[in-house]
Amino acid sequence: MPVFEFDEQDGFGDSHRAAWESDDELAEDALELGTHCDTCNKNGKKSEAEDVHDDSTDGETVEYKLAENGDIVLEEGEEDIRVPRRKMKPNDFQPITTLGRGSYGKVLLVKQKSSGKLFAQKQLKKASIFLRSKGIEQTRNERQILEEVKHPFICRLFYAFQDHDRLYLILQYAPGGELFSHLANERMLPENVVAFYSGELILALIHLHKLGIVYRDLKPENCLLDAEGHVLLTDFGLSKVAEPGADCRSFVGTKEYCAPEVLLEKPYDHAVDWWSMGILIYDLLVGSPPFVGNSYKRIVEKITRSRPNIPFYVSPDARDLITKLLKKNPKQRLGANGRYEAIFKHRMYRKIDWKKLERRELTPPIVPCITNLEAAENFSEEFTKMPVTATPIDHQTPFTRDGLTVTPNFKGFTYVASPTFLQSDIMSGSPLSRL
Ligand SMILES: Nc1ncnc2c1ncn2[C@@H]1O[C@H](COP(=O)(O)OP(=O)(O)OP(=O)(O)O)[C@@H](O)[C@H]1O
After folding, report:
1. What pLDDT score was predicted for residue 43?
2. Which of 40, 49, 69, 238 registers the highest number of CB atoms within 10 A of its CB?
């Protein structure tokens, strides 16, 4: 996958760091957001079912040094030998419940049999991918992008594999569910809360942009929460790697969140993500996106021609930010061309210490109610009540296209995260293991 770094001068490099380091006032004024569990008072109780520490590695015997507290002692640069880099298969994971459904298949909560660890397993039916011509490219994109991207607010990919019928992505499980399901409980969020979530998402987007990736699909369903309440951006099916100077012309995205240049089929770039960020901030503050209508044509008309109608109760700072992000001309949009400093310094974020935010040191305003990770309490019962069956063993049913029998193989799809990562923060010191 082609990846390029932005120029240090106008990119994320020094100018970004300078913005953080020079602004002591902002650091001192750092926001201490109050914490509450939004649906109950049982803050993060440990589930006995989760207290599993099975070090077995499918019969392989390995030796490792142990510290007094039982931690594995690793020499610098040494990879953890407890986690052999072995390809996974569907049968290595026990399905627990259904979490949701995407356009190519479902997302299950699964438990890795060898370790007892929980993951989200995104299944994609090859037949439906194969029948939609853009599907294969989209799926490869998703796998490659997830593999490459490592960021505290972006959902991690651990394994990717396939059998005859399906592709499988084994992802970091976001037990807090969708950010917007919490919004549905609250209707509108206060400005300091919106600054927190949009701040974490801004850092995630900048990370992607720095890698040359346009996310293109920023929408409520793709903003999940981890057990502590930090944002996890997911679903990279529509992300695209932009070559320097190249524009992406294919139509993607959820229309209410789509930038005008995309709807008008004009060339577009990373600035589309800053438009969607403006829509998301409006949606969080007001309770619905700014451009809605009962037909596709009406929505497109509003997005391309109308100004957003910002209610009177939105503060001047938030109003200013939304207006600057929702500039129809992508070149004038806040954040366009790597001008991230203007976002960091915007008054909407005056109480955010960006360094602390990136280090996950600011307390999330909503702590998801999780009493038992396996119960997936923050997901819709429409899914969690669905019966889950074990993933069928590869039954070699051929399917046809244009009258021909085909057995598509998605070359290069298989992926195993590095052993170091499999034992890293997310897996061992993460909220999941602490519950
Ligand atoms: N890592 C995860 N942890 C927990 N739940 C997840 C995770 N990934 C997805 N989900 C749940 O599954 C639902 C569907 O996810 P998916 O990524 O397939 O959505 P989608 O945007 O419809 O996908 P696509 O655009 O590929 O069709 C999400 O809305 C979310 O509720």
Report:
1. 34
2. 238
Atom 16 of ligand 1: nearest residue by CA position:
102
CA-CA distance, 152 to 228, in Å (whole number)?
12
Q: Which of 111, 122, 238 to mutate to test the pocket of ligand 1 (most atoms within 8 A of CB)?
A: 122
Please give the CATH architecture assigned to the domain spanning 186-358.
Orthogonal Bundle (1.10)
Verify whether ligand 1 is closer than 6 Å to residue 178 (CB atom): yes
Enzyme catalytic residues: 217
The full DSSP string for 239-297 is -EEPPTT--B-S--S-GGG--HHHHTT--B-THHHHHHHHHHHHHHHHSS-SS--SSHH
Q: Are 280 and 287 in contact (CB under 8 A)?
A: no
In the reported structure, the alpha carbon of residue 98 is separated from the centroid of ligand 1 by a whole-number distance in angstroms of 11
Express each pLDDT in 243-287 by its tens digit.
444 444 444 456 899 999 988 888 888 999 999 999 999 999 999
- Looking at CATH, the fold of the domain delimited by 14-174+383-423 is given as Phosphorylase Kinase; domain 1 (3.30.200)
Q: How is residue 357 written in tokens? A: 């935010």
Question: Domain residues of the chain, as ranges?
Answer: 14-174+383-423, 186-358
Give residue 88's pLDDT band: very low, low, confident or very high (50, 70, 90). Answer: confident
Distance 119 CA to ligand 1 centre (A): 13
In the block, residue with structure tokens 């040094």:
65
Question: Residue 174 in 3-state DSSP?
Answer: coil
Query: Alpha-carbon distance 349 to 343, whole Å?
Result: 8
Amino acid present at 148: E
- pLDDT tens string 328-372: 999 999 999 889 999 999 999 999 999 999 999 999 998 999 999
